[in-house]
Amino acid sequence: MFYQLYELNHAAMAPFRAAADAMRLVYANPLNPFSQTPFGRTIAASLEMFERTTRRYGKPEFGLKETVVGDSKVAVREEIVWSRAFCNLLHFARNTPSGHRDPRILIVAPMSGHYATLLRGTVEALLPSADIYITDWVDARMVPMTEGTFDFDDYVDYVIEMLHFLGPDTHVIAVCQPSVPVLAAAAVMEEANDPLSPSSMTLMGGPIDTRINPTAVNKLAEERPLTWFAENVIMNVPWPQPGFMRPVYPGFLQLSGFMSMNLDRHVVAHKEFFMHLVKNDGEPEKHRDFYDEYLAVMDLTAEFYLQTVDQVFMKHSLPKGELIHRGKRVDPAAIRNVALLTVEGENDDISGVGQTKAAQTICVNIPDDMRMHYLQPDVGHYGVFNGSRFRREIAPRIVNFVREHSRSGKLSVKRVIRGGKSA
After folding, report:
1. The organism sits in which domain of life (predicted)?
2. Residue 199, in any domain of the structure
3. Any residues with CB less than 8 A from the CB of 153 and at least 6 apart, and which?
4. Beta-carbon neighbour count of residue 70 at 10 Å?
5. Residue 417 has what pLDDT?
6. Is residue 59 included in any domain, yes or no?
């Protein structure tokens, strides 16, 4: 009943939230003389804090309307090019001149509570140099029970289907959680001698082997049996959502876990936001933009969540050679023709240093000249795929690696990056 109570509480707060937002507009209106006083700004700030902390944040938009290709600005059009019940494949179509050729990249976004828009910065940084597609996972609470289930095997199958849809010489990037199913998909395709296997595979901050430098997230999974997770965090979607009665791992639980890991940082950020509003200084829009994204969460299907906890964090099936897909063992040693780049953050507190690099160890048959590992200094988990250091240090390395290992003729590689730790 916890999920139902959560929904009931949110509905009960709706009129108070609407009233608070209306009063905030009154006190923030420049025609109101109180809006220019500390008293008026304090009232407006308090009302905004109340409205924001009781709001359900909807799915954000990517909002990428243009990019720069070469020296020219070009328009970008977002379109769904492939669709299944639990995922849409988005293409950021650039209005480039006829004959212009850039590598085609499939970004597999994490299905771990946040929407794919969490990777907006990733897409934005790569878009000038590549033809970008990204998985837009569907909130499980919005998928009717008649659409069936979605588990780890289905995830791997979706990745394979998307690579088949995109065609030859596609490069794949997995950010965090999908590193395991993406590597599994590549192994399945290579073992089947699939000509549409990806040209390269970039794994970023992913839990390939969580026995290495285990973090608090990893330890939590090992401290309790799988039955505890099934009994305590799996809930049925309440009425009147389209996915009514579907068993899910609610996004708000995942969000509470993320926030509890750095609770003091979030408290300080909100306190500073409040003071900036009262003093009418600082950059409150940056706070709003960040938390509009961070607090927007989605539900995961129970079967996928529990299998991930069991296979990735408890049994460590992939690095031990025991991962099964559709009744057959996944063999990373089958990967011979897919170039491998692994990227980690020095201060990552979700996927510890060495966990992603483990892919280099288990993929034993990838030639040395088709593999590379990079450790980015001074960044945490989110800095691996977003932020200034990602744009300056990591994104150029990814683009260079992808171009260097394109199968349809070598693309030009711009060696303009310095610093960092490569191996």
Report:
1. Bacteria
2. yes
3. 325, 326
4. 11
5. 43
6. no
Rounded-to-integer distance, Cα 109 and Cα 84, Å: 16
H or E stretch including 165? helix 152-166
H helix intervals, 192-322: 216-223, 226-232, 251-261, 263-279, 284-294, 302-308
Of the pLDDT bands very low, low, confident and very high (cuts 50, 70, 90), residue 409 is low
Query: Do 344 and 353 form a contact (C-beta atoms < 8 A)?
Result: yes
Helix or strand or coil: residue 139? coil
The Cα–Cα gap between 154 and 137 comes to: 13
pLDDT interval class at 422 (50, 70, 90): low
> In 3D, which of 241, 217, 197, 219 has the Cα closest to residue 339?
197
Ramachandran angles phi, psi of 400, nearest 5°: -60, -45
CA 363, 394, 382 angle in degrees (round to 5)? Answer: 90
Determine the Cα–Cα distance for residues 385 and 383; give it in Å rounded to an integer.
5
Residue owning tokens 């491998």: 340
Specify whether 228 is located in the same domain as 159.
yes
Domain total of the chain: 2
Decide if 150 contacts 87 (C-beta within 8 A).
no
54 φ/ψ angles, rounded to the nearest 5 degrees: -115, 5
Contact call for residues 172 and 105 (beta carbons, < 8 A) = yes
Position 70 in a domain: yes
Percent of the chain surpassing pLDDT 90: 61
Q: Which residue has the tokens 């500390």?
A: 38
For position 395, which CATH number holds? 3.40.50.1820
Claim to verify: residue 28 and residue 144 sit in the same structural domain: no
Indicate whether 137 and 282 sit together in one domain.
yes
Query: Residue 350 has what pLDDT?
Result: 87
Give the count of beta carbons closer than 10 Å to the beta carbon of residue 118.
21
pTM across the whole model: 0.88
Task: State pLDDT tens for residues 223-243.
Answer: 888 999 999 899 999 988 899
Q: What is the pLDDT of residues 109-155, one digit of tens each?
A: 998 888 899 999 999 999 999 999 999 999 999 999 999 999 999 99
The number of residues in the chain equals: 423
Tell me which residue range forms the domain holding 38. 1-54
- Please tell me whether residues 180 and 307 are part of one structural domain: yes
